[in-house]
Amino acid sequence: MQKLLARQSEAKTIRKIVGIISLSIIIIIGCLVLAGYLYVQSALKPANPKNHQLKKVEIPIGSSVSSIGSLLEDKGIIKNGFIFKYYVKFNNETGFQAGTYGLSPSMTLDQIIKYLKTGKVAKNAEVKITVPEGIQLTEIATIIAKNTPYKNVEIMKHLDDKKFVTKLMKQYPKMLSKDILNPEVKHPLEGYLFPATYYFYEKKPSLDSIIMKMLDKTNIEIKKYQDDLSKQNLTPQKMLIMASLIEEEATSKADRHKISSVFYNRLKVGMPLQTDPTVLYSLNKHKDRVTYKDLEVNSPYNTYKIKGLPPSPISNAGELSIEAAIHPAKTNYLYFLAASKTGKVYFSATLAEHNQLKAKYITSQK
What we know:
366 residues; mainly alpha; Dna Ligase, domain 1; two-stranded antiparallel sheet; 6 strands; globular
C-alpha cells in the first residue's frame, strides 16, 4: 500500500513537471511568435515618423527588389530591407523605375512604393559620369575630371587620402577592411568604384558624394553574394582582387568562369598566377605585349614573381567577373591562352598541352 501511494505521488510529480515544461515551451513559442509579429509590424511602419527631411536616393538601372530594399535601409528610409522585399512580393508590386527620388524616413512603405513607380528621368541630371568595366582608378579620376570642375590631381589626392579612406572604412565596415591600407597597396579604393553610369543633380556634386555613390553600388553588389562569400570563406577584398584579374584577362569570347577556375586551381597547388595584367599594373603601363624584361619588375603585384594574389585589385571589375570570381567552373585546367587572330580562349591541364596550343594559335600566327 505504501509503495502504491509512493508511486502515485511520483506520477503526480512527473505530471506536474511535464505540465510545467509543456507550458513553458508553449509560452516561449508564443513569445517568439508575438515578438516576430511585433517586429514585422514595426518594420512595416515609417522608419522615423517625425523626420520629414527628404533624402536623395538613386535607384540604379536594373536594381532588384532586394537591392532596392538594402539601399533604402542603408539610407535610413525604411527599417528593414528584407521585410520591404517580402511586403512588395506579397502585394504583387512591380514596375519600379530607375531614377533619383526624394524620400523621407517619415514615409510609409505604400508611399515609397508609389514614388518608386514614378521614376524621374535621368536626362534631367546636371552631371553624368560613365565608368566602363576594367579600367583603373587613375582612369576613373580622369573621367570624373572631364565631367566635373575638379582636377585630376585633386581627385587622386582625395581618393588616396588616408583620413578620407579611414572614414569610408567606418561607413562600409563589411566591405572596406584594414587590408586596403596595407603599405604595399597602390591605391586603397582600387577595385571598389563600380563600373556603371552615375547621375548627379547638382552642377558641382562633392567629390565625397561622387565616390560614395560608386561605393554604394559596389556595396549593393557584394551584399547580393554575401552568403556565397561566407560559404567559400572569401573576403570582399580577395573576391574583388580575383574579379579584377578575370576582368583583365577576359575577352569578348572568353569563358570567365573557366579563367576563374585556372586561377583558383593554381592557388591550390601553389603555382604563381603569372597573369600579364599584374605586370603592366606594376609598371603603370598599357601595352599589347609583355616582354621578358617586363617580367623582371620587382613589385608585390608581379604575379610572375610572387605566389598568391596581389595585395589589391588591379582594376574595377564588372558584375560578370564578380560572379565568375565567386562561382568558378569546376575544372582541372592550369593554363589558358587567347588565339592571336580570333581571340578565342583555349584551356589546358598540362604544360605540354599548353605549349602545343601556344605553338598552334600564337607562335604560328605571328
